[in-house]
Amino acid sequence: MSEIGIFYGSFTGTTEDVARRIATKVGVPEEEVREVSQLTDELVSDYNVLIFGTATWGSGEAHDDWYDGLG
Fold first, then answer.
1. DSSP codes of every residue in the chain
2. Spatial distance between the Cα atoms of 11 and 31, rounded to a whole number of angstroms
3. What is the pTM of this model?
4. CA nearest neighbour of 6 among 26, 34, 27
5. What is the pLDDT of residues 3-20, one digit of tens each?
6. How many Å from the N-terminal Cα to the C-terminal Cα in the chain?
7. C-alpha distances in angstroms, 9 versus 14, 17, 24, 63?
8. Residue 67 and residue 8: Cα distance in Å, rounded?
9. CA 22 to chain centre
10. CA–centroid distance for 66 within its chain
């Protein structure tokens, strides 16, 4: 398992694309890039560094999955 976990929420795929590009640049394996809907306390504790990415919509609302993922 990588020391870095990347979690994203994406409406149109752009934030996912950016998350995967960041992963490539910093050497994070593909399997460590996940949708925020997969976020759990156990999973978070496996990493030393977390990178979160979210799209915004409308008046700056976060992606819907973030409400569940961080709730």
1. --SEEEEEE-SSSHHHHHHHHHHHHHT--GGGEEEGGG--HHHHTT-SEEEEEE-EETTTEEPHHHHHH--
2. 20
3. 0.82
4. 34
5. 999 999 888 899 999 999
6. 25
7. 10, 11, 18, 6
8. 12
9. 11
10. 9
